[in-house]
Amino acid sequence: MTDFRIRPLGDRVVVKPVEREEKTKSGIFLPDTASKERPMEGTILAVGEGRRDDSGKLVPMNVQAGDKVLFAKYSGTEFKVDEVEYLILSEKDILGIIQG
Amino acid sequence: MTDFRIRPLGDRVVVKPVEREEKTKSGIFLPDTASKERPMEGTILAVGEGRRDDSGKLVPMNVQAGDKVLFAKYSGTEFKVDEVEYLILSEKDILGIIQG
Amino acid sequence: MTDFRIRPLGDRVVVKPVEREEKTKSGIFLPDTASKERPMEGTILAVGEGRRDDSGKLVPMNVQAGDKVLFAKYSGTEFKVDEVEYLILSEKDILGIIQG
Amino acid sequence: MTDFRIRPLGDRVVVKPVEREEKTKSGIFLPDTASKERPMEGTILAVGEGRRDDSGKLVPMNVQAGDKVLFAKYSGTEFKVDEVEYLILSEKDILGIIQG
Amino acid sequence: MTDFRIRPLGDRVVVKPVEREEKTKSGIFLPDTASKERPMEGTILAVGEGRRDDSGKLVPMNVQAGDKVLFAKYSGTEFKVDEVEYLILSEKDILGIIQG
Amino acid sequence: MTDFRIRPLGDRVVVKPVEREEKTKSGIFLPDTASKERPMEGTILAVGEGRRDDSGKLVPMNVQAGDKVLFAKYSGTEFKVDEVEYLILSEKDILGIIQG
Amino acid sequence: MTDFRIRPLGDRVVVKPVEREEKTKSGIFLPDTASKERPMEGTILAVGEGRRDDSGKLVPMNVQAGDKVLFAKYSGTEFKVDEVEYLILSEKDILGIIQG
């Protein structure tokens, strides 16, 4: 799973968003009927080596390939490989990790 | 209570907002009739490990799971697990801890 | 007075604003007739432990519970406990301490 | 003169603006007829202890009570004590000291 | 390939964008039919020596001439040499490297 | 010439702008007929002691009283002493020094 | 060529833009027919000593007098000496150096 075709730079990660039907099954993040926007759920496919702090040291990433994560719906940039949608986004835009 | 299904990243926390009726009972934060916006009340369910400062050190969190807190109404991102509403927000958006 | 029900986080303070009549009596901050906005007067009820600087050290607060202070009218967030209005605001928004 | 009723916080100062007539007498800062805005003139009545730099050290103030100063017309916050107008502003908004 | 006629300064790189037809062949980044904007694909022709951090040290570049990369469509500045289009952009605007 | 009546604070300088006719004589900075805005020319009359860097040290000024300088037309604040126009501006707004 | 009449301050440089006809001859940067803006080409006539970093040290310049450079069309400030157009701009606005 670390062999995804795109290797993200800096603190970016590649995420495969979870489809709507899967969400309903797991009981999380049903379609929003309220006014406020909901975050999206996805699986991390590849992670960058991390950003460098002010003194040039690498800041280790807090997520890894395989993690299921929540992220804000409009963060990141979409792209397609062989007709499948992916997103590339900064670790800062990941809200939390879905456990178990 | 630390076993909430979402583990927040960085200095984020997961909060369960208090319902309107409960607020009235406790005597705090009645529905706003004035022009200015009121903060919301909630209970912290899970906390991140904290943000890293400029030199990469972890800054310890000032809140913990179980704390009742005040936060600005429009901060954070809402999500649902099994039809229950939660918010994930940065510790910086928490105004204070409600005591006793 | 340090036992106020809300314990502010970081460099925030809880302030009880002074009523308009009291201001007139003390000779300070009469109702504004000019174009420019006037600051408000209030009494500090509770103070946070202070913000942390870039290296993680606590920066001590310059105000304490009991101080009468001036602050910009639109800073901070209002809330009510038992029908009484309070504000929670950052120490940075406090302009000065009223002496004597 | 250091006993002004408001003690400014941080790098703020309290200034008493000079009246228009006085300005004309001293030959400085006549009423603006041109397009560009002119600075105001005033006398410093009280100074804060200074701001703290990134490492928490106090940065000494460059002005003191009694200094006549130039400042941009729209900087700071106005207030009144006993019907007299004052301004509270940051030292950063003071352009220069009027000598002699 | 490191002898491209423009030597980028700082953390900039010169990129030759991939033509639309080539993309279709490789199976990546088909023309967008959805609402969200897709990143572009290109080949790096020249890289700067890197930006300097706050203490003046060079931060090494993470990309090199020959790398195939993804970048946001509107980042950078276009220019032409002998009727061929190139872009010069900051390394920060490169989202990831396309592998083998 | 260092005895100008206004002593600028921080990294500010007082500049006496050159009149339009003088500019024409010296062959520099003719009235603009093109779309883009031209810088102004002036003579520095007084300089502040410099700004303090993050650790509180004074950063020495690069200009001195007597220097002829170029500066962007809309930078700084105008003021008058005895009917003569001056500007007070930050050293950062000075583009260059006009030599001999 | 280092004796240009304007000595730029900080990390600024003086650039003489290349005329349109010259560009066509060299095969670079033909007039733009596409939607995106093209950078300009010019020759550096004078360079400042560099900016100072946070600790007050000079950051050396990456360009020197005589360099042919690319820069974004709307960066910098235009001025004229003896009817000839020049630009003064920050080194940060220089995209790259044109080689040989």
Automatic annotation (TrEMBL), chains A, B, C, D, E, F, G:
<dbReference type="InterPro" id="IPR037124">
    <property type="entry name" value="Chaperonin_GroES_sf"/>
</dbReference>
<comment type="subunit">
    <text>Heptamer of 7 subunits arranged in a ring. Interacts with the chaperonin GroEL.</text>
</comment>
<dbReference type="InterPro" id="IPR011032">
    <property type="entry name" value="GroES-like_sf"/>
</dbReference>
<dbReference type="InterPro" id="IPR020818">
    <property type="entry name" value="Chaperonin_GroES"/>
</dbReference>
<comment type="function">
    <text>Together with the chaperonin GroEL, plays an essential role in assisting protein folding. The GroEL-GroES system forms a nano-cage that allows encapsulation of the non-native substrate proteins and provides a physical environment optimized to promote and accelerate protein folding. GroES binds to the apical surface of the GroEL ring, thereby capping the opening of the GroEL channel.</text>
</comment>
<keyword id="KW-0963">Cytoplasm</keyword>
<protein>
    <recommendedName>
        <fullName>Co-chaperonin GroES</fullName>
    </recommendedName>
</protein>
<dbReference type="InterPro" id="IPR018369">
    <property type="entry name" value="Chaprnonin_Cpn10_CS"/>
</dbReference>
<comment type="similarity">
    <text>Belongs to the GroES chaperonin family.</text>
</comment>
<keyword id="KW-0143">Chaperone</keyword>
<dbReference type="Pfam" id="PF00166">
    <property type="entry name" value="Cpn10"/>
</dbReference>
